[in-house]
């Protein structure tokens, strides 16, 4: 893993991150076409990436493998105050993680998630969470291998 560089994304990375998103967008569009758009210039465009990078509650990291963009993670720092039914809650919620198909199974995703966990620890946050689509067996196996465990289940019915 010594040739993997992980760093905070900058606006200069927006085009690469947008391109990296197209692979995972295509996987989702193929599996749930009525919910996800086919990848194209208007799906997660560089301008949207730049806006996320600029938000103070966003954590956007980009991975380079042998000096080429290999993957990224977009997570949100969530701080929920105590309410009448819940205790105060802090977490880092991973919204996106995408690794180029050519770079999978080389430690890029694992290293990205390790960096998210390190950031959580640095911020005093004890929980990292994400959701994964039921159809995405490869992602589910990857996340299980990193120690992530199910904690909630969402159901739906198309009418």
Oligomer: single chain
Principal-axes geometry comes out as globular
Low-confidence stretches: none
Order of helices and strands: EHHEEEHEH
Computed structural class: alpha+beta
How many strands, what sense, and barrel or not for the largest sheet?
A: 5 strands, mixed
Mean pLDDT: 95
Q: How many beta-strand runs?
A: 5
Q: Radius of gyration over alpha carbons?
A: 16 Å
Please give the count of helices.
Answer: 4
The level of helicity is 25-40%
Give the strand content.
Answer: 25-35%
Strands in their spatial order, largest beta sheet: 1-2-3-4-5
Gap between N and C termini, in Å? 47 Å
Short characterization:
It contains four helices and five strands; from the N terminus they run E-H-H-E-E-E-H-E-H. With 159 residues, the chain is an alpha+beta fold. It has a five-stranded mixed beta sheet with strand order 1-2-3-4-5, with helices on both faces.
How are the SSEs placed, and which strands pair?
Blueprint: E1 4-8, H1 14-31, H2 46-54, E2 58-65, E3 68-80, E4 89-99, H3 108-122, E5 128-130, H4 137-145
Parallel strand pairs: 4-5
Antiparallel strand pairs: 1-2, 2-3, 3-4
Written account of the structure:
The chain is of the alpha+beta class. 32% of the residues lie in helices and 25% in strands. The protein has helices at 14-31, 46-54, 108-122, 137-145, and strands at 4-8, 58-65, 68-80, 89-99, 128-130. The chain has a five-stranded mixed beta sheet with strand order 1-2-3-4-5, sandwiched between helices. Helix 1 (14-31) packs across helix 2 (46-54). The chain is globular. It starts with a strand and ends in a 14-residue tail after the last helix.
């Amino acid at each position: 893993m010594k040739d993997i560089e992980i760093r905070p994304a900058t606006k200069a990375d927006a085009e690469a991150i947008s391109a990296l998103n197209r692979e995972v967008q295509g996987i989702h569009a193929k599996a749930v076409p009525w919910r996800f758009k086919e990848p194209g210039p208007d799906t997660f465009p560089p301008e949207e990436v730049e806006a996320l990078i600029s938000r103070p509650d966003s954590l956007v990291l980009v991975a380079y493998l042998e000096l080429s963009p290999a993957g990224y993670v977009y997570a949100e720092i969530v701080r929920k105050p105590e309410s009448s039914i819940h205790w105060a809650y802090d977490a880092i919620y991973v919204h996106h993680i995408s690794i180029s198909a050519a770079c999978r199974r080389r430690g890029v995703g694992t290293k990205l998630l390790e960096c998210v966990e390190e950031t959580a620890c640095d911020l005093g946050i004890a929980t990292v969470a994400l959701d994964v689509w039921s159809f995405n067996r490869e992602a589910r196996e990857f996340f299980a291998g990193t120690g992530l465990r199910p904690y909630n289940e969402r159901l739906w019915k198309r009418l």
